Amino acid sequence: SGDSAPLNEAMAVLQHHDAVSGTSKQHVADDYARQLAAGWDPCEVLLSNALARLSGFKENFTYCRNLNISVCPLSQTAKNFQVIIYNPLGRKMDWMVRLPVSEHGFVVRDPNGTVVPSDVVILPSSDGQELLFPASLPALGFSIYSVSQAPGQRPHAHKPQPRSPRTW
Amino acid sequence: SRDLAIQNEHIRARFDPDTGLLVEMENLDQNLVLPVRQAFYWYNASTGNNQSAQVSGAYIFRPNQQEPWMVSHWAQTRVVKTPLVQEIHQNFSAWCSQVVRLYRGQRHLELEWTVGPIPVGDGWGKEIISRFDTALETKGLFYTDSNGREVLERRRDYRPTWKLNQTEAVAGNYYPVNSRIYIRDSNTQLTVLTDRSQGGSSLRDGSVELMVHRRLLKDDGRGVAEALLEDGLGRWVRGRHLVLLDKVQTAATGHRLEAEKEVLAPQVVLSSGGGVPYHVK
């Protein structure tokens, strides 16, 4: 069973001005981060249980915490996977989903099974690549998109074109 | 072509073809064009001087001179253009890079900056800022929010509740920015949304800056008894600034709706699919 109390507890501890403004010793700052991460774990279980009940399917839900550095083992290895996007705002929202993927072409389908436009972009710094697709999200709700590798389709990945600045 | 620009239905951003730096932003819906230069700079952290022994540290921001140094006068750039996104990848130095991005349908310019590990081998602590310089006649005024709610007017070298004797030309004009900072003239507003709390200011008319990272070598004597130094190689940090260009009359709608999306961003969860039904029936 999931539990949000540990995260609540961590957030309560982090009301201290040292946590808010970074005026603590390094080991204390590291412990603040540890408490937040430890508090987040049981929240993932809570979120998974809610999604299972609301979507009607018990899934092995995966959370990629390092999307900001383009790391997500599931989307980088799976041939097919689902992307569940929860919108906490009280209004409908359009949002560009960006996920690290392996070197393939992909087909993305919306909750109605309609193919949505998608792109694959190569990251200049790491030569990894990311799949982009626009998602439409209901207010205070979630949408489930399906991603599958397009058999035989060469990745039409858009490689960044270097610009040679004037020699300095 | 020599022209280095990215564009979608609403926004166009132009870059100097020689330096790779942002030089202009255009709101196509409102026919607004604003020359805006953006670059990264670093303040040299004070270790105390003849005016004051105060060191720049965890509690105290105190640069040792008013003018920051540019991280780089130019950037190595790469261009990505697809039907869904147009990006300019800027590489300023081994520890400072940025992606300027426009997704299809987006009404703001996204600057995803990556800064660090900050080199301190030269014995200088450094405080890194991203600065936007425009020709807006802002008359010493700029605006910062308080926890995403009330926006306060700030005036350079001034306090509304007491007669300020300004002794720190830079630090004395820095304010907390929880979600946004903006400058404007009678017609045009430039707003920068942050994805976390930062320090910010407008130290000259038309200019706005946000501090994105710091790495210091001395303790500031306020109780931590440790420099803000980070262990090992030091941290590198990635974040985003969302830049909106609007007419003053319509700017609040734009930044308030966008800031809500930023603070309450969607949560992405993945699954391999093929789960068993939750309800037996």
Write the layout of secondary structure elements.
The complex is a heterodimer of chains A (168) and B (281).
Chain A: H1 5-13, H2 17-21, H3 26-55, E1 57-58, H4 73-77, E2 80-87, E3 93-101, E4 106-109, E5 115-116, E6 119-122, E7 129-137, E8 141-149, E9 161-163
Antiparallel strand pairs in A: 2-8, 3-7, 4-5, 4-8, 6-7
Chain B: E1 4-7, E2 11-15, E3 22-27, E4 32-44, E5 69-70, E6 76-81, E7 85-93, E8 96-103, E9 109-115, E10 126-134, E11 141-145, E12 151-155, E13 175-177, E14 180-184, E15 188-194, E16 198-201, E17 207-215, E18 237-247, H1 248-263, E19 267-271, E20 276-277
Antiparallel strand pairs in B: 1-2, 2-3, 3-4, 4-5, 4-10, 6-7, 7-8, 8-9, 9-18, 10-17, 11-12, 11-14, 13-16, 14-15, 15-18, 16-17
Descriptive labels:
heterodimer; A: 168 residues; alpha+beta; 4-stranded antiparallel sheet; 3-stranded antiparallel sheet; 9 strands; globular; B: 281 residues; mainly beta; 9-stranded antiparallel sheet; 1 helix; 20 strands
Sheet-strand content of chain A, in percent, reads 25-35%
Share in helix of chain B? under 10%
Structural class estimated from helices and strands of chain A: alpha+beta
| Straight-line N-to-C gap of chain A | 60 Å
Tell me, what's the shape of chain B?
Answer: globular
How many DSSP helices of chain B? Answer: 1
End-to-end distance of chain B, in Å? 63 Å
Number of helices of chain A: 4
In short:
The complex is a heterodimer of chains A (168) and B (281). Helices cover 29% and strands 30% of the residues of chain A. Chain A has helices spanning 5-13, 17-21, 26-55, 73-77, and strands spanning 57-58, 80-87, 93-101, 106-109, 115-116, 119-122, 129-137, 141-149, 161-163.
